[in-house]
Specification:
The protein is mostly helical and about 100 residues long. Helices cover about 70% and strands about 0% of the residues.
Length: about 100
């Protein structure tokens, strides 16, 4: 017997459900009306609260592709910085 695959929801659907939940103030009723679990709607709300300010960030005309590349490179730099620090500490311990 195969398990169910998780349902996929579009960005528009998620945004509309979250917006409705904020407007009505009733998370449970909104979730029930759209046939999704309350926890899922709550997670979407948290995501919007955390990432919402990025919608208004001034990007100086950079395209989405350029911004994604910058974000990816910044992550790599961060990871390499941490690895470098670990290697330096390991080298100090060996001496």
């Amino acid at each position: 017997m195969e398990g169910k695959s998780p349902r996929k929801f579009s960005e528009d659907f998620k945004f509309n459900v979250v917006l409705e939940s904020f407007i009505t103030g009733d998370l449970a009723a909104t979730a029930a009306r759209h046939n999704v679990h309350v926890t899922l709607v709550n997670n979407w709300r948290k995501q919007l609260k955390n990432e919402g300010p990025k919608l208004f960030a001034f990007r100086k005309g950079k395209s989405n592709q350029e911004q994604r590349m910058i974000d990816q490179l910044e992550k790599i730099i961060g990871r390499l910085t941490i690895e470098n620090q670990i290697l330096k500490k390991t080298q100090e311990m060996i001496r």
